[in-house]
Structure formats: C-alpha cells, structure tokens
Specification:
The structure is a single chain. The protein is of the alpha/beta class. It has a single domain (about 5-145, about 220-315), classed as Rossmann fold (3-Layer(aba) Sandwich), CATH 3.40.50. Helix content is about 45%, strand content about 15%. It has helices at about 45-55, 80-95, 105-120, 120-125, 150-165, 175-180, 185-190, 195-210, 210-215, 220-225, 230, 250-260, 275-280, 280-300; strands spanning about 5-10, 15-20, 25-30, 55-60, 100-105, 125-135, 240-245, 265-270, 310-315. A nine-stranded mixed sheet has the order 1-2-4-3-5-6-7-8-9, sandwiched between helices. Helix 1 crosses helix 14, helix 2 packs across helix 3 (about 105-120) and helix 3 packs across helix 4 (about 120-125). The two termini are about 35 Å apart. This is Pimeloyl-ACP methyl ester carboxylesterase. One of its GO terms (molecular function) is catalytic activity. InterPro entries: AB_hydrolase_1, AB_hydrolase_fold, AB_hydrolase_sf, Epox_hydrolase-like.
C-alpha cells in the first residue's frame, strides 16, 4: 500500500508526498506533475511500474506547493526556481540515498531542469535517468495553441493578463461550477483526438484543488524559463522525451529541442495525442520510463548507457 507523508519545508510550506516500494529499492523514480495538476495524474504509471518492477523500484509522487493536497504559497515563491529547490528538498528527505530517475510532465519537467541548473552537484551525484513528458526547455517560444501566430499572440496576452489577476487572489480555489462549465475548453486545450471522460474529471478535480495564486502566479516563470544549455551539460544519462503531435501547449519542437540537447534521449512522437500523454497514451509513457529504468538497472552502480538519440513514432 502507498504511504502518504507530509514534508514540511524550511519556509513552512507542507508538501503532500506519496511513496510506494521499499526504502532499499535499487532505484527510486520521482514523478513530477504539471501546472494546475497533482500527483494523481501519474496513476497509470505508478500502477504499471509497480507491477513490472516490484520491489526493485521505489515510486515517489508529490503535489507541488499550491497544488493538490500541499499547502498554499507566497506569491513571490510561485517560480520554477522555488520548485527546483523543493525537488532538492524532497530528494534529500524522502530519497536520502541511491540512484534516482526523474520523470517530469510539463511544469514538472521544467522543475527537473531547474533542479539541475540550481543544484548541479547534487543532481550529478544522484540522478541516473531522465524522462521528459510534454514539456519544454524554451518557455513559451513554441506555444501557439495550434493557431496562427497572430491569434496566438492575442491569446497569450489575454492569458498573461488573466494570470496576473488570478495570482492576486490568494489561497482561493476555482469554483466547481465554473470548472464544469469550462470542461470543453479544458478538453480542447489539453487533449488530442481521444479523451476518456474519466481523465477530464481527474484533470478538473486537480484544477479545483490548485489555488488561484498558483494558477496565476507560476505563469510568468513558466513562460520565461530557458534551460537548453543546462540540458546540454548533463552528459550521457539515459533519457527519453515524449510529445503528442496535437499538443497545443508544448508542441513537437519543444521535445525535439530537448532531444537535440540530450544526445542520449530517445524521442517519441505520439500521433493524435495532446498535452496529457500519461493519460492519453499511458502505454507509450510507461514504455519510455521502463526503458530508462531497464538501462539504469542494467548498468554497474546504477549508471546509464550512452546510445545515440533515436526518433520514433508511437501510434
């Protein structure tokens, strides 16, 4: 059974952490969710990895500050830099020893990059593998929402203005009635050709648990981050990058630039899929994480191999 823990950070923010698997497992996988979501978004991956690897792998998910069951945050801390520091604290406290594979979706992937940028020695000492799911190292450079550049600029202006308003709303959470009305918009923005109604309900529930300060406050930092140079310096870690070709938030050029910066990364493009790959294409995400884990577990001392980047297309 998974263990639920509360990690109190140095600024008194409390993170809700879920752990499954033995503390002496050969490798620990830390899965980081996206903006406005929570740790539940990885339920397909947790179930599959637990069945496939049993006690060889320990699994950790947690709700980022201001999200899910974690506590609210000060507006000044709604930054990717702070999330990178939070990840360092989670690893130090929850995974004090052994190799770690980091799996990040959207904002979670950007958090991994920030951790590598701000804590390079700790990252190098502990990280054995990486999986980037529907994320970017270039802020909003490639985000055009699947629309013309001119319309995309107008939407981004409206989104940025709205985010600034929401960021000042404090610890309030979105009304459920409003979110139900916005489900068609959420479905269009986040999903591709196929969408399970249960996934929409889960995403809507997650957004309902994110504070308005978090929903609005993180937007500026997400749009401004550029970490390709950080990725280029990471060396030969086993890695994977996945993207849906219908992703309106982090389209294929985002994953392509990550794979180009990480020569060991295997790039997977999922036709017809949107931004929520771990729900839309769980088999592809599970296979990518398992592939990285297989390479980590097979290497002496939990190290990784050094294959060239390979582009694949997953149906």
């Amino acid at each position: 059974m998974p263990e639920h823990r509360e990690l109190r950070l140095s600024d008194d923010v409390r993170l809700h952490v879920t752990v499954s698997g033995p503390v002496d497992a050969e490798v620990t996988v830390v899965l980081l969710h996206g903006w406005t979501l929570d740790g539940r978004s990885w339920h397909h991956q947790v179930a599959e990895l637990r069945e496939r690897f049993a006690d060889r792998v320990r699994l950790v998910t947690y709700d980022a500050r201001g999200h899910g069951r974690s506590s609210c945050l000060a507006l000044r801390d709604a930054t990717l830099a702070q999330l990178g520091d939070d990840l360092a604290a989670v690893i130090d406290e929850i995974v004090p020893s052994g190799p770690v594979v980091l799996v990040g979706h959207s904002m979670g992937g950007m958090t991994v990059m920030e951790y590598a940028h701000r804590h390079p020695d700790r990252f190098a000492a502990r990280t054995a593998g990486l999986v980037f799911v529907s994320t970017t190292a270039e802020g909003h450079t490639h985000t055009v929402y699947g629309l013309s550049p001119r319309i995309a600029r107008l939407i981004r202006l409206a989104e940025t203005t709205g985010a600034g308003v929401l960021a000042r709303c404090g610890g309030w959470r979105p009304p459920h009635a409003l979110l139900r009305a916005l489900r068609p918009s959420i479905r269009w923005m986040l999903f591709g050709d196929r969408c399970d109604p249960a996934d929409i309900r889960l995403v809507t529930s997650a957004v309902a648990h994110a504070t308005l300060r978090s929903i609005g406050g993180f937007r500026a930092s997400i749009g401004a981050q550029h970490r390709l140079e950080t990725l280029t310096a990471l060396g030969g870690l086993p890695a994977a990058a996945l993207v849906g070709d219908r992703d309106r938030l982090t389209p294929p050029p985002c994953a392509e630039s990550i794979a180009a910066a990480l020569p060991t990364a295997e790039l997977t493009v999922c036709p017809g899929a949107g931004h929520m790959l771990m729900m839309e294409r769980p088999d592809a995400v599970n296979a990518a994480v398992a592939g990285v884990l297989d390479r980590v577990l097979a290497a002496p001392g939990g190290g990784g191999g050094d294959p060239a980047a390979v582009a694949t297309v997953t149906p």
